[in-house]
Amino acid sequence: MSGPTKDDILATLSRITDPAKGADIVSAKMVSGLVVKNGAVGFALEVDPARGAALEPLRKAAEDAVKGMEGVTSVTAVLTAHSETPGSTPPPAAAAPKGPPPNLGLAKEGDKPIPTSKDTGPIDGIDRIIAVGSGKGGVGKSTVSANVALALAAQGKKVGLLDADVYGPSQPRMLGVSGRPSTPDGKTILPLRNYGVTVMSMGFMLEDDQSVVWRGPMLMSALQQMLRQVQWGKLDYLIVDLPPGTGDVQLTLSQKTRVDGAVIVSTPQDVALIDAKKAIDMFTKLKVPLIGMIENMSTYVCPNCDHEAHIFGHGGAKTEAENLGIPFLGEVPLDIDIRTSSDGGTPIVVSKPKSPQAARFREIAASIIDATAEVPA
Ligand code: ADP
Computed over its alpha carbons, how large is the radius of gyration of the chain? Predict the structure, then answer.
């Protein structure tokens, strides 16, 4: 791993002061959802929604300070309403704003508001929606989503991948797509495509320097656009890479369409598994069928001496799945090629299809196909 740690970033952020509070933004507990991955940094500043627009300079200052740190390759800082923090699930009706849904960049001013109450059923042309979730960030949920999507495509399936991880959208980078989807008529969105997979990301909805207060209703509106205004075409599978945790996106997705199954990714440590259990519990409450659990970053085999080490422990997810009575879909090793290939935009399923690691992802994809063989009417 390269780049600064979370503590380094918090130290930098603690030099930024919110004049209205007379305190730095870390001591004022405004920083949340900090994610650091190999120099790519994402975080939210929790603010009073009434001060939203006025706080853009503060957001920009925080973003610029982190951008200036050595080893930082990209920074995404967003403003979020503190009453609806990432991970909370406010009642959508109570939180719904007055007026039309916010314009997040791709829909034009004056367009009809997106229906938010009627469209709750399956999406035309999409046979199955599979959610990939995790209890916490950094466990490899996006890596698994990308490789499983590609493995499904390699098996002849028509596949879409929706990157709904608002706090750290990484699928464009993992799948090597750049540029912005176009919206020829201001109503429908043409997604991007690579390696036979159709890709759309919540990250595309933001202008480069745009600050967005990702309140529950905004997430709901953005997700609705992603699901119903994107020209997905005919898909056997739409894989949804969720944000970590149990928050508004998960809730909205299951309320606004039919989710056919959920896959939970966890690393083997107890602490990750405790969070994974919360995610499983949430899907159960939302009545989303659980396809199973994947243990990522399981065994590490030294490429020089073949020694096997269990850096984060081993087998915890399998035992947990057995305890919970849900299927265990397999282990993915902690492997340098998995990391470099995904982070470099050529996931291992396409860059080294004959490797044992790619075979693991294909086995997991096959289990997902088996578990969702019947398309509900
Ligand atoms: P999440 O979506 O859960 O936040 P990511 O998929 O972005 O996690 O993975 C976090 C980091 O860990 C990335 O740099 C990714 O390349 C790396 N990673 C994920 N899975 C593995 C693995 N099995 N072996 C090695 N590195 C991995």
Answer: 20
